[in-house]
């Protein structure tokens, strides 16, 4: 017995030490030979492309690469994607990799990490190239915070000149692209130079891991800072042939706040000079074959909208009642109907599923809080949602026309949704076709009973005496 | 016992009634106008309102109607009502005399106040119905009696025309009328065909026989068709009037141009802007026409609204609009107003804007605050805003808010509603600040809603809707 216990404890100890060693060594197993970072600041969603050439200098094969982010950036991180590139030049192929957030408590200064899982483990001495794309929202801070109608909007972007990484980086360069040539100021970390709309930081050689030197770029960005503070999308499935979608928006311009006079005269007379940071058009991309589109707010119908449809997509161009300047908000409701056969399918195991696109149909907007409610027809059972990224789910019940037990509603919530998240998701449920007869039978039986009652009343003799 | 109870109840009821009557009489006798409100008094004396209560006179529905408005509202009935009145006199019963009294009084009152056209409408419908039914009676009977194979008794009446009278059997005897009732019916059909006059002495028939009028066949068929056509036109007109004249929402203005329908949605745009971009407890001052709309759509507190029950309050706002900037700012400051809403139509030619209503602001304000004197704003008895305008007019708040930076839009400051160039073109607002102008673009001619904000440093903000 003791021998077994002893053997067990030794085995456990060995496992723990191995794991400990592995976890320790994995951080230092890899070296980044060359890192190139391109930061795209043209719209209010910041896009960062990282190209990392990773070499395994340790002895064990590595199957994971860690990405580090400063804690202020992690809160605004909307999506992280990674691709492995193989081949050279024209024959490059991209293999998507899984990225998961990880907790490493020993990171300095509260750094947060993401782990990229490689498809094939990287053997010792080999190198591989990984491309990472991550998107940041609410990262451009307007400064000055209030501008008048005739001024242009200037914003800060804060980051580090060097890529934050737990590995040793041999050579790294950062390129920052601004939307126009007007850059008020930028921090100089030698060697830095600027050409047109591109700022180049680097190349930096042989900096230790976790090195970070903060930079601030103050530049002009007049692209529309359209943020939807809250969006509730209700998708109602009706087995009689249509899907009704109703979306409630609360749209805010999150750029520099507007101060002073708003003069329409000036705004229309000189559009290139006045109100450059405001926006008045928004484009919503809807699926093809959309019908009965409406655009309203609390007062009533908003007449300024255009709908263009063709066989592959529909575009709804909406204009809120007034152009949105910094700090102004507008609320409205967009609704439309879609044919059922485009979206409802039957899965191989007999369940039905709805294939619909997640996310906000408005182009180039950030949604702070997105709620999608899928209302399943009455009599549906076992609902479950399959979404490619993490969302919060729960179920509700909704009572609508001719409902006895109520309709199940699958509620999906996501914070910080951006156009990248406009991918299809599925909601599975089981439904016996016999339940479709419930509603017509209910109506028919009510009418039948009513007529029977009338007939009975007319023919019953209730007089007390003849 | 039963009788005692009955007498007790009856006497108690009578006592209560008498007490209420006494209270009512005391109330009525103690009021200076003997219980009549201002609006009702202006019915009895049409000049009362314009002398004493200008706010009642300012409402356009309280003005006397024009003659064309009768035709617009009751159309064909305008011809049929006199015929109906005459028809009521033959025979004159209690019911028909009531109807005649009804129509006469309602015609008088609708002539005093155009809003009371509503009272005239049912009376006119009743009377024209009577006229039409009598006419159809005669014409159908004429056709029926002259159809081949119909047994008729013909006796000719002594009349001044060609028709043949027919005595119908088994008709209940009516009161007197032997020859006169038929005069008005053939008189209309006289012109249709000329026929020889047949005169025979009228024969007094037995009491149960009645002399009835029968017209020639062709005339009556034609008359029937024409009456039906008249009614059809009336229906068409009524549908059109309901659709165009009575259903137009004044909040959304439409205009038809060569490339379709243009919608001026400026009011709703301004109200939506107010509701989203101002604080919840900011108050908006405007003329009372926009009160309910602002409350409902912009969801903000207003100073005066369409209820117009507080004349002094409206007079305060009117005084503020007619005073120079500093005095107006003090009034608005005392009312805790943050935004002033002004509607201006000079850019595109919208005639119902605040400058056109300005004379009522002066009159109503002057009715309560004697320092606003209407002659100060008039030049030769007219309100002018061009270079001939009085200095009081050029300095008042309404002028300044409406025409602030108006020259920058067109170049010369030509007001399309008043059809003149404005008098004072370049000036600054000292106590007010223009916050936003709302208009919908239509080839450069715009409806503008200016919103001006009041700042803590002492400026009132102004919202202007320029249409």
Automatic annotation (TrEMBL), chain A:
<feature type="signal peptide">
    <location>
        <begin position="1"/>
        <end position="27"/>
    </location>
</feature>
<comment type="similarity">
    <text>Belongs to the OST1 family.</text>
</comment>
<comment type="function">
    <text>Subunit of the oligosaccharyl transferase (OST) complex that catalyzes the initial transfer of a defined glycan (Glc(3)Man(9)GlcNAc(2) in eukaryotes) from the lipid carrier dolichol-pyrophosphate to an asparagine residue within an Asn-X-Ser/Thr consensus motif in nascent polypeptide chains, the first step in protein N-glycosylation. N-glycosylation occurs cotranslationally and the complex associates with the Sec61 complex at the channel-forming translocon complex that mediates protein translocation across the endoplasmic reticulum (ER). All subunits are required for a maximal enzyme activity.</text>
</comment>
<keyword id="KW-0812">Transmembrane</keyword>
<dbReference type="GO" id="GO:0008250">
    <property type="term" value="C:oligosaccharyltransferase complex"/>
</dbReference>
<keyword id="KW-1133">Transmembrane helix</keyword>
<protein>
    <recommendedName>
        <fullName>Dolichyl-diphosphooligosaccharide--protein glycosyltransferase subunit 1</fullName>
    </recommendedName>
</protein>
<dbReference type="InterPro" id="IPR007676">
    <property type="entry name" value="Ribophorin_I"/>
</dbReference>
<keyword id="KW-0256">Endoplasmic reticulum</keyword>
<feature type="transmembrane region" description="Helical">
    <location>
        <begin position="441"/>
        <end position="460"/>
    </location>
</feature>
<keyword id="KW-0472">Membrane</keyword>
<dbReference type="Pfam" id="PF04597">
    <property type="entry name" value="Ribophorin_I"/>
</dbReference>
<keyword id="KW-0732">Signal</keyword>
<dbReference type="GO" id="GO:0018279">
    <property type="term" value="P:protein N-linked glycosylation via asparagine"/>
</dbReference>
<comment type="pathway">
    <text>Protein modification; protein glycosylation.</text>
</comment>
<comment type="subunit">
    <text>Component of the oligosaccharyltransferase (OST) complex.</text>
</comment>
Automatic annotation (TrEMBL), chain B:
<feature type="domain" description="Oligosaccharyl transferase STT3 N-terminal">
    <location>
        <begin position="11"/>
        <end position="127"/>
    </location>
</feature>
<keyword id="KW-0472">Membrane</keyword>
<dbReference type="GO" id="GO:0005789">
    <property type="term" value="C:endoplasmic reticulum membrane"/>
</dbReference>
<feature type="transmembrane region" description="Helical">
    <location>
        <begin position="212"/>
        <end position="236"/>
    </location>
</feature>
<keyword id="KW-0464">Manganese</keyword>
<dbReference type="GO" id="GO:0046872">
    <property type="term" value="F:metal ion binding"/>
</dbReference>
<dbReference type="GO" id="GO:0004579">
    <property type="term" value="F:dolichyl-diphosphooligosaccharide-protein glycotransferase activity"/>
</dbReference>
<keyword id="KW-0325">Glycoprotein</keyword>
<protein>
    <recommendedName>
        <fullName>dolichyl-diphosphooligosaccharide--protein glycotransferase</fullName>
        <ecNumber>2.4.99.18</ecNumber>
    </recommendedName>
</protein>
<keyword id="KW-0479">Metal-binding</keyword>
<feature type="transmembrane region" description="Helical">
    <location>
        <begin position="70"/>
        <end position="89"/>
    </location>
</feature>
<keyword id="KW-0812">Transmembrane</keyword>
<comment type="subunit">
    <text>Component of the oligosaccharyltransferase (OST) complex.</text>
</comment>
<keyword id="KW-0808">Transferase</keyword>
<dbReference type="InterPro" id="IPR048307">
    <property type="entry name" value="STT3_N"/>
</dbReference>
<keyword id="KW-0328">Glycosyltransferase</keyword>
<dbReference type="InterPro" id="IPR003674">
    <property type="entry name" value="Oligo_trans_STT3"/>
</dbReference>
<comment type="pathway">
    <text>Protein modification; protein glycosylation.</text>
</comment>
<comment type="similarity">
    <text>Belongs to the STT3 family.</text>
</comment>
<feature type="transmembrane region" description="Helical">
    <location>
        <begin position="96"/>
        <end position="114"/>
    </location>
</feature>
<feature type="compositionally biased region" description="Basic and acidic residues">
    <location>
        <begin position="195"/>
        <end position="205"/>
    </location>
</feature>
<dbReference type="Pfam" id="PF02516">
    <property type="entry name" value="STT3"/>
</dbReference>
């Amino acid at each position: 017995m003791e021998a077994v216990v002893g053997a067990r404890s030794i085995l456990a100890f060995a496992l723990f030490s191995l794991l400990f060693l592995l976890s320790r060594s994995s951080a230092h197993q890899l070296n980044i030979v060359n890192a190139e970072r391109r930061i795209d600041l043209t719209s209010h969603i910041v896009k960062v492309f990282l190209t990392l050439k990773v070499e395994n200098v340790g002895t064990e094969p590595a199957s994971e690469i860690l990405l580090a982010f400063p804690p202020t950036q992690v809160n605004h991180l909307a999506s992280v994607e990674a691709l492995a590139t193989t081949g050279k030049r024209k024959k490059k192929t991209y293999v998507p990799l899984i990225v998961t957030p990880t907790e490493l408590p020993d990171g300095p200064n509260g750094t947060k990490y993401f782990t990229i899982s490689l498809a094939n483990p990287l053997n010792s001495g080999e190198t591989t190239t990984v491309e990472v794309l991550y998107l940041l929202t609410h990262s451009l801070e307007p400064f000055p915070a209030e501008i008048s109608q005739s001024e242009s909007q200037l914003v800060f972007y804060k980051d580090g000149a060097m890529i934050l990484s737990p590995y040793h980086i041999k050579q790294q360069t950062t390129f920052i692209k601004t939307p126009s040539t007007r850059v008020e100021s930028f921090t100089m970390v030698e060697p830095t130079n600027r050409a047109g709309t591109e700022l180049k930081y680097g190349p930096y050689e042989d900096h230790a891991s976790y090195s970070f030197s903060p930079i601030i770029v103050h530049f002009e960005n007049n692209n529309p800072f359209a943020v939807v503070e809250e969006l509730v999308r209700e998708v109602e499935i009706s087995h009689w042939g249509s899907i009704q979608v109703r979306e409630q928006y609360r749209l805010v311009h999150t750029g520099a706040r507007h101060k002073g006079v708003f003069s329409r005269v000036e705004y229309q007379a000189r559009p290139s000079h006045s109100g450059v940071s405001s926006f008045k058009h928004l484009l919503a991309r809807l699926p093809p074959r959309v019908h009965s589109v409406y655009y309203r707010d609390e007062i009533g119908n908003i007449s300024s909208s255009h709908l263009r449809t063709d066989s592959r997509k529909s575009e709804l161009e909406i204009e809120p009642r007034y152009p949105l300047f910094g700090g102004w908000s507008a609320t409205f409701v967009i609704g439309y109907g879609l044919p059922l056969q485009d979206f409802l399918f039957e899965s191989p195991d007999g369940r039905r599923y709805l294939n619909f696109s997640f996310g906000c149909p408005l182009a180039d907007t950030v949604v702070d809080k997105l709620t999608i409610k899928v209302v399943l027809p009455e009599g549906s059972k076992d609902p479950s949602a399959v979404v490619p990224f993490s969302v919060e789910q729960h179920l509700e019940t909704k009572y609508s026309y001719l409902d006895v037990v109520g309709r199940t509603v699958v509620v999906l919530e996501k914070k910080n949704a951006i156009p990248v998240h406009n991918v299809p998701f599925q909601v599975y449920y089981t439904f016996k076709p016999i339940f479709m007869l419930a509603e017509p039978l209910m109506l028919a039986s009510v009418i039948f009973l009513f007529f029977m009652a009338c007939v009975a009343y007319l023919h019953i003799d209730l007089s007390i005496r003849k | 016992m039963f009788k005692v109870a009955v007498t007790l109840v009856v006497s108690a009821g009578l006592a209560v009634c008498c007490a209420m009557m006494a209270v009512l009489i005391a109330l009525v006798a103690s009021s200076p106008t003997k219980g009549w409100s201002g609006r009702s008094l202006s019915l009895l004396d049409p000049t009362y309102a314009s002398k004493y209560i200008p706010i009642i006179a300012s409402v356009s529905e309280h003005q006397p109607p024009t003659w064309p408005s009768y035709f617009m509202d009751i159309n064909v009935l305008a011809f049929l009502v006199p015929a109906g009145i005459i028809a009521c006199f033959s025979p004159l019963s209690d019911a028909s005399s009531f109807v005649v009294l009804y129509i006469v009084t309602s015609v008088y009152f609708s002539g005093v106040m155009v809003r009371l056209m509503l009272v005239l409408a049912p009376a006119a419908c009743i009377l024209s119905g009577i006229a039409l039914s009598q006419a159809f009676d005669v014409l159908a009977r004429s056709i029926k009696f002259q159809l081949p194979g119909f047994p008729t008794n013909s006796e000719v009446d002594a009349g001044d025309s060609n028709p043949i009278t027919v005595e119908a059997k088994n008709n209940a005897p009516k009161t007197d009328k032997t020859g006169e009732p038929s005069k008005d019916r053939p008189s209309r059909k006289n012109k249709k065909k000329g026929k020889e006059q047949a005169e025979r002495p009228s024969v007094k028939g037995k009491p149960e026989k009645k002399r009835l009028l029968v017209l020639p066949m062709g005339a009556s068929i034609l008359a029937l068709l024409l009456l039906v056509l008249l009614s059809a036109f009336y229906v068409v007109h009524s549908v059109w009037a309901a659709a165009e004249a009575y259903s137009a929402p004044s909040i959304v203005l439409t205009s038809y141009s060569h490339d379709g329908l243009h919608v001026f949605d400026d009011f709703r745009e301004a109200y939506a802007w107010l509701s989203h971009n101002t604080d919840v407890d900011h108050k908006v001052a405007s003329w009372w026409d926009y009160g309910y709309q602002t409350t409902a759509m912009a969801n903000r507190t207003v100073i005066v609204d369409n209820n117009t029950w507080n004349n002094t309050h409206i007079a305060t706002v009117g005084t503020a609009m007619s005073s120079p900037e500093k005095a107006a700012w003090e009034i608005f400051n005392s009312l805790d107003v943050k935004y002033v809403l002004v509607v201006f139509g000079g850019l595109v030619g919208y005639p119902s804007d605040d400058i056109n209503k300005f004379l009522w602001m002066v009159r109503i304000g002057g009715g309560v605050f004697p320092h606003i004197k209407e002659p100060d704003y008039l030049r030769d008895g007219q309100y002018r805003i061009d270079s001939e305008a009085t200095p009081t007019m050029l300095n008042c708040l309404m002028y300044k808010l409406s025409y602030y930076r108006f020259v920058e839009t067109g170049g010369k400051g030509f007001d399309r509603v008043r059809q003149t160039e404005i008098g004072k073109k370049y000036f600054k607002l000292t106590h007010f600040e223009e916050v936003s102008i709302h208009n919908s673009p239509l080839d450069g001619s715009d409806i503008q809603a200016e919103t001006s904000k009041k700042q803590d440093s002492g400026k009132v903000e102004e919202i202007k809707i320029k249409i």
